[in-house]
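To close the chapter, one final illustration. This time we ask the reader to focus less on the individual chains and more on the assembly as a whole: which components sit near each other, and how the overall shape emerges from the parts.
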Amino acid sequence: MNGVDRLEALRPTKDSVDRLWSPAERQAVLEGVLHPARRTGRVRRPLMLVGAAASVAVAALAVSLVLPGGAPGGASPAAAAALDRLAGVAAAAPFDTARPDQFLHMVVVETQTGDGSAAENPAGTSVRTHESWTAADGSGWRKDTEAGHVLYFRLPAGGDYTAAPSPAYLASLPTDPDALRARLVANASGSTSTDEAVFVAVGDMLRGGFAPPALRVAALEALKHTPHVSLGKTTVDAQGRPVVELDFVDQGNRPDEVQALYFSAETSEIVQETTQAPGLDYRGLVQASGVTDAVPADVLAQAVAPYGAKAASNG
Amino acid sequence: VTTNPADADRLSALFEAHSRRVYAYAARHTDPETAKDVVAEVFLVAWRRVADIPEPALPWLLVAARNVVSNSVRSSLRQRRLAVVVAGSVHGNGLGALMPGADETAVERSHMLAALDALKDTEREALLLTAWDGLTARDAAVVAGCSTRAFEVRLSRARAHLDRVLAAEPTPCEVTR
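The assembled structure is written out below.
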């Protein structure tokens, strides 16, 4: 028996699949698709990052299991100096804050070439637009547009479903730099290292202009104490806005991958993010952000709460 | 979203015929739990575009699944990485869990997982698209995102590589991580 024959003998069967995904769960999915109003059951977890870094994930796993929480050192001297300048900007920067009856509105345009999982045959370039409205508790609505197709979602709180950081999340964070970094490290999950977790968390909280100045300053200070952070060369983003690029490159955990945050030189908010890795070129551009009083009627009318997620209320 | 009863019947039929295959595809690219969400999203897209789905439908559905998995890179805005770490190894994703689970096949499963882990990602996927998903080379090439010719070359190499790895089968304790 050759290898393919042996592989075919281990092909998933109806029973082996049903063990993992019960007939009742299957039926609930079908019902949820056909009849959105009847959706009940478990809350959908946010779809995880898969594919983009799959090619490096095995190495990442091996390293992450043995690395202590963070390596000694901090950002490069040039990055630290840039962060100091940004902190000066942040301290005096305006920020958008929403009342409980308002929404954080954000439009992010993402462009991606390849998915990192098949470098020898990368997928074509795709462009996707996320427009989201985030309520004070983190629930919200999202409108995704790609290749002429539009999907509308009602999203529950607590799921990282919208592009904007939840006001409740921002309000929960300490503004003392050491305490903030400690909080981010203590709550780090889903990253290959605590250093990466801090970098990603800063990206999440400073995306758009919603973080208060004191929090921005603390976040920038936290990055100064984060190894693998260096100053990049980009000085304007895809919309021509002046930016300061800060890169995260951890060859031990994610070889040949550069994650970058682009801070507005004028406001210190993050206006662009990129990831470049073998077989992957990703850019997320914050096209617009601000506070709005209402979610558009077409979004309210057409949005569905996917997979049994408890729907967001209408403000 | 369509409300045509005939469309609903077709989607139900597609779901009955292919949802387990879509789940199996998704589970080996993510994990058994995340795969449930991927299937739901695939059929949500299918429902919105039911008139566009060709026959045979499985390749279309698997391409949709591939896109859902890839789109999660974009939609998540890099916020969560753990699943990547878990899913990056065939020992960590749903691949092993999908295999039939009789005790007498445990050693064989272990050998096969170790052998698949030794292959390039593209080789492993080529084998699974044909041996597990039952796709022709032409349909599998569509799902893999390459030309039929490129896929056939890849598949041929993958078969040879798998045979070589299995020919040097280690003992189960040697493949344990």
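Chain A has ten helices and nine strands. The CA atoms of residues 71 and 104 of chain A lie 35 Å apart. With these observations in hand, you are ready for the problems at the end of the chapter.
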